[in-house]
Amino acid sequence: MADLHSKAVRQDQPGAPGQGTATAPAPAAGSGVRGEPILQVRNLVKHFPLTQGILFRKQIGAVRAVDDISFELREGETLGIVGESGCGKSTVAKLLMNLEKPTSGEILYKGEDITRLSGRALKAVRRNIQMVFQDPYTSLNPRMTVGDIIGEPFDIHPEVAPKGDRRRRVRELLDVVGLNPEYINRYPHQFSGGQRQRIGIARGLALNPEVIICDEPVSALDVSVQAQVINLMEKLQSDFNLSYIFIAHDLSIVRHISDRVGVMYLGKMAEIGTDAEIYDHPTHPYTQALLSAVPQPDPEGREQRERIILTGDVPSPADPPSGCRFRTRCWKAVDKCAQEVPLLAVPQHFADTEGGAHHDSACHFAEERDVLRAA
Fold it and tell me: Mean of the pLDDT values across residues 241-250?
């Protein structure tokens, strides 16, 4: 990583809920075109077995947490993954980190399938793929100082920072995430939620990674602090050419930081495209329903936008519907939706036209729909 010194605006007062002025980040450009693919996911599946019995356990089914999804992440790009709770987003994060082994499929890091690695080879890859966790209150050990928390990765990878150099490196990392290096001997309880998440980000940066998996990194923070953390992450990405997978359920936040967006439903990828394609021209009914619920600050915009109310509950991932997973809640559903699984591809009637939507959508009856820009 380049010099870590003085890369971010510092927050010097621990314990305050929202230091400084929270400036909302500008929306991403939405080009969706960055460098070469650095991470490729192909037909990824993760089923968790359901068993019964105590002495003689018998498998009676499986929870289909992730069921045949594919996507790629390019160098310097942010891919947002959104969806309701239970759709499989966090399971995808664990699979990408190799914290869970997939039932089938491939995860290629620079062309190498990391699901088949172990030992030193896996250790080397994990240095380049790090994670920022959701809850800054439980992801930091309360018995360790900030210096020990951020420096802990150096115990596993001593080649990154020899023991005599670790304290200097930790102080640089504190500075780069906007915290006073003099806080190195303080404990997590002496910091606010936003500052704790900055500590988590510093820990994720310690090994100079190329990819950072962000599992709802701002969902536990106040709105004003969320903007500060998002601004910091965008600056770090620009400074160090980081690639992010940003998992969240807040569509407004995802739009601000993402180049491309994938929408998940019940273990499947429903739609994926650039942020402009997904937010301005959604084609999958589920995406259209989600976007219709995004708060709109303009009173006239609220009156013009049609609110889509979904009926029914999300089906169980242990017993998903046949065909299209969304058909039990979809107003377009017909017999074909129950019989055939829709492919994630550009709908043919869009592919043959100019100026319309040209991104992948898993719907037999995909329909371009103009949606007012989210807040």
Answer: 93
Dihedral pair phi/psi, residue 62, rounded to 5°: -155, 145
Q: Torsion angle, CA of 199/204/205/206, rounded to 10 degrees?
A: 90
pLDDT (tens digit, 9 = 90+) per residue, 214-238? Answer: 999 988 888 888 989 999 999 999 9
pLDDT digits (tens, 9 = 90+) for 179-209: 999 999 999 999 999 999 999 999 999 999 9
Distance from C-alpha of 308 to C-alpha of 291, rounded to nearest angstrom: 9
Tell which residue, 96, 30, 24, has the closest CA to residue 261: 30
pTM metric for this prediction: 0.85
